[in-house]
Design a protein that fits this description.
Helices cover 35% and strands 20% of the residues. The protein is of the alpha/beta class. The chain has a single domain, classed as 3-Layer(aba) Sandwich (Rossmann fold). It has a five-stranded mixed sheet with strand order 2-1-3-5-4. Helix 1 packs across helix 4.
Length: 153
């Protein structure tokens, strides 16, 4: 049996306060989870270049500051692939569009779970607000548990 592979992508702009939530969680997770079947990336945005990484994964975990949900609360939901027209691709993609593109180009895409929170501030600055900073540790715990359970099955 082929070992399961997990891809974690924390994305956002670390110079825009709470938008740095994803990369900060990914960096902390990288310190905590060191497993040969787990790849952890940080990006400013989701882009076409991630298709090959997604195609190789069985589970993808995305971490982002989102435009929905509530500040100070972690929203966890599965993302379904959404078909897109290849000619309409810009510099960044939504999670659903990236999964759809992976499916279209590679013939498969992984199960994908998004962990997000609504930012309190997107002003210039490198420090998370209190509400979002308080979610970093619990989010790392949640994702580490998810990865451990997934790889143990």
């Amino acid at each position: 049996m082929t070992p399961r592979r997990v891809l974690v992508i924390g994305y956002g702009n670390t110079l825009r306060r709470d938008d740095g939530f994803g990369p900060i969680v990914a960096a902390r997770l990288r310190e905590r989870v060191q497993h040969p079947q787990v790849k952890i990336l940080t990006r400013q945005l989701l882009s076409v270049e991630l298709v090959t990484d997604l195609e190789q994964a069985d589970l993808c975990v995305l971490v982002d500051a989102a435009t929905t949900g509530a500040t100070g609360q972690l929203d966890v939901r599965e993302v379904e692939a959404q078909a897109i027209e290849v000619g309409s691709i810009g510099h960044d993609l939504s999670a659903a569009s990236l999964l759809g593109l992976t499916q279209q180009l590679m013939g498969r895409s992984p199960k994908c779970i998004l962990h997000s929170t609504l930012p309190a501030s997107m002003d210039l600055g490198e420090e998370l607000t209190q509400h979002v900073a308080a979610l970093v540790g619990p989010t790392v715990d949640t994702i580490a548990r998810l990865i451990g359970d997934y790889l143990a099955d």
